[in-house]
Amino acid sequence: xxxxxxxxxxxxxxxxxxxxxxxxxxxxxxxxxxxxxxxxxxxxxxxxxxxxxxxxxxxxxxxxxxxxxxxxxxxxxxxxxxxxxxxxxxxxxxxxxxxxxxxxxxxxxxxxxxxxxxxxxxxxxxxxxxxxxxxxxxxxxxxxxxxxxxxxxxxxxxxxxxxxxxxxxxxxxxxxxxxxxxxxxxxxxxxxxxxxxxxxxxxxxxxxxxxxxxxxxxx
Length: 219
What we know:
mainly alpha, Arc Repressor Mutant, subunit A, Four Helix Bundle (Hemerythrin (Met), subunit A), 3-stranded antiparallel sheet, 9 helices, WH-like_DNA-bd_sf, transcription regulation, GntR family transcriptional regulator, DNA-binding transcription factor activity, GntR_C
């Protein structure tokens, strides 16, 4: 549920993260109204940070604004499928750029993400694994050097972050996911363009199916 007072630093971002998490976990159900003054009082802040948070959630499609104020719209299965279609397009385009100009690629970010995933897997830390997982895909897209695609990705990345936390927490074994990422990176480095396209498609399809099975708001 919604939490109480937050740190003064980055209030808008903190409120956004908290509301997003509550929506994805189903604690704020579809159709529920959000009243700015009530949220501001609950967090002990002015309406400004709340307004900023609601605007970001509107941009992400989790909230809609109408004459009666803001209403939770949540995510449908179609929404999630659409988001994954976008990811497939983004990541395949990034992969094509990497294959065409491997000398311009900074591999350090993806290497570090793989190591973070390995450490999180060994520690059984699903939240840390989710963050490392997302960092890997972020680095892949950043290496596309396509500024517009990177900007669009930055809008949906926070939403994928909390969605991955939900699904990874339900996975009995994240080893197959880790092995997918290792295979993708190895194929990228070796120039296996066709192979990595197949690997990314399979990996994202598996992630989508797990998400639909495990996210409570999609049932």
